């Protein structure tokens, strides 16, 4: 394909690979029982404006999470991990805000590293909402490195392509037009890599295996953050919830999603314009179709991951729940039109939903799959720029740091990579004094890569919708691009990241 199709990403990718080359290369291949909340009701002071890399952070003289007596740091006796085997009390305590994929995997990583924490979730229970989610080889490696059991458990719930000999195919590229391009002689074009194994799962199933590894007594539900105050250097971070509860921790990790409040406490004072996620120029409809019905409508296409491309539209289908269902995501691109609704979802009529794909440009079989869809437009927002993932002892993880569009199936994987790197770094600390500097190391390692995923995902969306400036509707060029663009995500050396983290952390803690 022409070099111009890659011109917008090659320079920035080169800078990432160059900066990471200094790391040593190696082969890749919730928690203490929660204390009762403090009765403190005073309003917190203004968020401390200290830089992320702080040298004024001093050891705390109190390792309790708040003014109540400290409860023991323990896990169930049948878990043979490091946290269970270590008798000494952890040197600091982390408040984790948000129990999505990122927060849960981070909590599991903290347990493995004997890092004390409590998980606070705004909802009344763990989420049971979601559709399909795909994990690339980088995400699967990160799961294994956090805890090998996670990789095994994910394998038990995930699905691949149902057609034999397509284990390494991410998706087939087809036209969304009637007859899927057959009338112009187009043959479905697979793209993937030998390093890639096609896996996808129902998001709820993934959340279930994550929550199964977190003791129920260590999670606090119905805890929506009202404010976070860092106070004076060396003091505890105070978190006030909307129900009036006040807790303290040595640091806060916000994994509360793209709309969560923690991002404002990291960026609000310094970069207020970067707090809110921005509309990416498209919305989606989602449905989960029984596989028997999907096969009747789409034929053999329903059993494999497929991407149907068209002008300003894109349909993605893939099997989930061990092949029992077909997951559908139908994208509508609104080029240049703003999202004018206060909420990120908008309910429409079924007729309006179908009209988004009318005019004869979309094969009616794809439109039939919308019979199982709730006529709800889900707008897609992202964080194209995030100047920092931390502010002293408050740190961002997952979508709170780098919400992205789903066009590279890499969002969940970046959350898991965050969890791996941050839990590893915190596991090296021997006191609370190094937390701010540890967060700065995490920021320096994770932010360039995660933000590059956000930027290149937006470009991938342009390719899927025939809006790319260079490739347009040339499917040969688009497929050639797809066969190259994911490799830097999938084949990233996470072991080298951890080695670099160790080296950088040692350097900053010795200053």
Overview of the structural elements:
The chain is α/β, with parallel strands linked by helices and 511 residues long. It has a domain at 33-129 and 204-277 and 390-509: FAD/NAD(P)-binding domain (3-Layer(bba) Sandwich), CATH 3.50.50.60. Helix content is 32%, strand content 19%. The chain contains 16 helices and 19 strands. The chain has helices spanning 7-20, 82-85, 101-112, 137-146, 148-157, 203-211, 262-267, 291-298, 350-355, 364-368, 399-402, 411-426, 435-464, 475-485, 487-490, 494-509; strands at 93-97, 116-120, 132-134, 169-175, 189-192, 200-202, 219-220, 225-229, 237-241, 246-249, 251-254, 278-290, 306-310, 313-320, 325-333, 345-347, 376-382, 390-391, 394-396. It has an 8-stranded mixed β-sheet with strand order 5-4-13-14-15-12-17-16. It has a 6-stranded mixed β-sheet with strand order 7-2-1-11-19-18. Helix 1 packs antiparallel against helix 13 (435-464), helix 3 runs parallel beside helix 6 (203-211) and helix 12 (411-426) packs antiparallel against helix 13. It is globular and about 70 Å long. 50% of the residues are buried. The model is unreliable at 1-51 and 53-87 (pLDDT under 50). Pfam families: FAD_binding_3, NAD_binding_8.
Features:
511 residues; alpha/beta; FAD/NAD(P)-binding domain; 6-stranded mixed beta sheet; 32% helix; 19% strand; globular; disordered N terminus; flavoprotein; FAD/NAD-bd_sf; FAD_monoxygenase; oxidoreductase activity; oxidoreductase
